Amino acid sequence: MSVRETHDARAFPARPARSGAAGKRASAGDIWRLLEDVPDPEIPAVSVVDLGIVRGVEQAGDEVVVTVTPTYSGCPATAAIRLDIEKALRARGFDRVRVESRLAPPWTTDWISAEGRAKLRAYGIAPPEPGGCAGTAAAPVACPRCGSLRTERVSQFGSTPCKAQHRCADCLEPFDRFKRI
Amino acid sequence: MDRDLFEFALRMGDNALILGQQVSAWCGHAPALEEDIALANTALDLIGQAKLWLDLAGEIEGAGRDADALAFLRDARAFRNALLVEQSNGDYGQTLMRQFLFDAWHFPTLKSLAASGEPRIAAIAVKAAKEAEYHFERSRDLVIGLGDGSEESHVRMQRALDLLYPFQGELTAPDSVDEALRARDVAPDLAAVKLETDRLTLETLAEATLRPPPAPVRKGGKTGLHSEGLGRILSDMQFLQRAYPGASW
Q1: Would you say the ipTM is above 0.85?
Q2: Which of A21, A58, B3, B26 is deepest in the core (most CB within 10 A)?
Q3: A74 and B134: CB-CB below 8 Å?
Q4: Which CATH class is domain B3-210+218-243?
Q5: In this structure, which topology does domain A22-101 adopt according to CATH?
Q6: pLDDT (tens digit per residue) in A59-68
Q7: Domain limits of chain A?
Q8: Cβ separation of B44 and A154 shorter than 8 Å?
């Protein structure tokens, strides 16, 4: 959950004074790059940007407005994500940060970046197949460990709202699958 | 205030809230770990949806009440959930049957509401429909598995159906609020929703070798006339805010 406050402190153009001037000195692109270092609190291998839940970054005067969308209506990480984004930007001198929530259009797993999918797989979670739609009767799921397609679903739900539990018939390992929605 | 819209948002929110509260009681008690996780996740989805609907209701009302105020500081008569969701958990089969009868209404309703002329309703519906479809897929599979399962599971599922089926009809029985909102293109025609709900329900029950009982529709919750069960649910759910008003963390 914690954001490494010192990370890449030099890379960022001269840390702005805490006077609220940050907004004028940083571009939206700079802010996006900062958000790429904010991990998802429940799947820290991916960032909030990788997951596609950051829908917009705007600067209004010296205020930064970040718009996020929830993955699942009741996802308990939503509040933590808002807080983490605020903390990360405040730590970089953005004193006035507002995180807004936007429901429509609804988040889909198609918004997870290619990089995000690769990170999920490396972390042991089968990424969602592209072509988002609800339901689970989908293409075979590849085991994130051995790549086998001989896998089966053990349970429709997993350790977080966004995952289901599967098992590989070849390497026999159980694994989480990011549900496609 | 737009009274009809307020009532409608309360109904959607209260259905999700009360069912979510009831299902969450299984956390740590389900018959298998996977089921425990599934029930907890279902409850979480429903409570998340309840927050969206009740925040909208508070916004429409314009009296400064948010989802928390509506959930924790209303008395039973002010709740607008259908009687189905306040029926007790019973055994695991009864909980599943209640979920299935609800999902078979919830999913087609949300699908229709996604095309609502009221954009705030459409936004919540599009989001929630994805979750409801997943819930329906699961409760349908389990009703078939247990209905067409062992002798014991079949008997229990039929008993649950006999008890709960009469309550499903309230969800698709239109009243003046539904009619007014349909005329405004905000909510769907409940006759169409009923067709789809009945189709999903009866097809599944047939496959599960279960027979719906001939029974009159039992209703009242949509207009605030509840069964005894709701009072018990609220006494548990609202305890903290009643005992320690304004408590937060």
Answers
A1: no
A2: B26
A3: no
A4: mainly alpha
A5: GMP Synthetase; Chain A, domain 3 (3.30.300)
A6: 988 899 999 9
A7: 22-101, 113-178
A8: no
